[in-house]
Design a protein that fits this description.
Distance between the termini: 116 Å
Helix content: 55-70%
Order of helices and strands: HH
Structural class: mainly alpha
Length: 95
C-alpha cells in the first residue's frame, strides 16, 4: 500500500513538472505575426514621412557649396620623429 502511494505521488510530481511548450509555441507564433504586421505598417508610415522630410530638406539645404579660391598663408606643418633599424648600416658623410 505504501509503495502504491509513493508511486502515485511520484507520478503526480512528474506530470505537474511537465513542459507545456506546444501551447507556448503557438502563443509565441501568434505574437510574432502581430508584431510583424505592426512593423510593416510602421515602416510604410516611416517611408511616407521620410519622403515628406526629403522634399523639405532638399529645398532648404544646397547639395554643393562653391567658393572662389583665394591666396592664403599655409600655416600647417607635420612634425615627425622616429627611429629606423636595419640589418646593415652605411655611413654617409659629406665631403
Amino acid at each position: 500500500m505504501k509503495n502504491i502511494l509513493k508511486l502515485a505521488i511520484l507520478l503526480l510530481i512528474f506530470t505537474a513538472c511537465k513542459d507545456n511548450k506546444p501551447a507556448d509555441n503557438i502563443d509565441l507564433k501568434s505574437q510574432k505575426a502581430i508584431v510583424e504586421k505592426q512593423i510593416d505598417s510602421l515602416s510604410k508610415v516611416l517611408i511616407k514621412i521620410d519622403k515628406e522630410l526629403g522634399k523639405t530638406q532638399e529645398e532648404e539645404i544646397p547639395a554643393i557649396k562653391a567658393e572662389k579660391p583665394s591666396k592664403k598663408y599655409f600655416t600647417h606643418y607635420i612634425d615627425l620623429q622616429g627611429s629606423i633599424d636595419t640589418d646593415g648600416n652605411v655611413m654617409a658623410i659629406p665631403e
